[in-house]
Amino acid sequence: MKRRTFIGTSVTASAGLVSASSFALESNEKSDAKLKGNINHSACYWCYNSIPLEIFLQNLNTLDVKAIDLVGPDDWPLLKKYNIHASMCWGAGLGIEKGWNDPALHEELIKDYLDIIPKVAAAGYTNLICFSGNRNGMDNETGLKNCVTGLKQILPEAEKHGVVLQMELLNSKVDHKDYMCDHSNWGISLCKALGSDNFKLLYDIYHMQIMEGDVIRTIKEHHAYFGHYHTGGNPGRHEIDESQELYYPAIMKAILETGYKGHVAQEFIPTWENKIDALKQGVTICDV
Predict the structure, then answer these.
(1) 184 lies in which domain range?
(2) pTM value surpassing 0.90
């Protein structure tokens, strides 16, 4: 399933596509290789949603990965059962293509986000994803102003509850044609205009490699505006090993050097037959 169709649908519903008995845990014990504890690892469930969520959470525990990205309120009770943190929540909005740059959508978006923000906080979580939306002929300056106008109406609620809104940087070249928040500089300008610690950018390494490259320098210079990170191999958005052009150990070291204490979520689409093994490899590569 492509991510654009996954966001805004029920994760729980996707878990019912395949019976839990079709998947076995890779091991009844944790991996012998202990994680170093420097990186807080997470995984984006949409990349593994052929595996029922409960089985996937059990596998995360065997890998000692204690967080998951892009899950909503219906799934939080199951996460708590397995002591897995929701490191990036969703549950509001109209998807990737329809976002805060369109004033016609503000009324609905404001209502949705004002409803979900207290729920995120009450569940003990912090990060809540949002999107700029597509340009649809709109220039960047107008889109930025529109985002400021809309987001300023929900930021006081986010600040009140300690929730951080995270707008994701996505590429508009390959995966999300016409998406507006497709360069770091645009997103950073939005952060500066809003002037709140409760609004950050979700820096997706795969997407920004496609749009602008210079990943390590960008992270070092602008890390104050980045509240979360996603991985992915380029080209192809598959495994982050030697089959692609990014060298993730160096990127992870750069992130650590900034003092970052949040989560790094694996968001590659596994090509291996054993998807959990592929995830284990990605986590191991990033465990610097």
Answers:
(1) 3-17+35-286
(2) yes
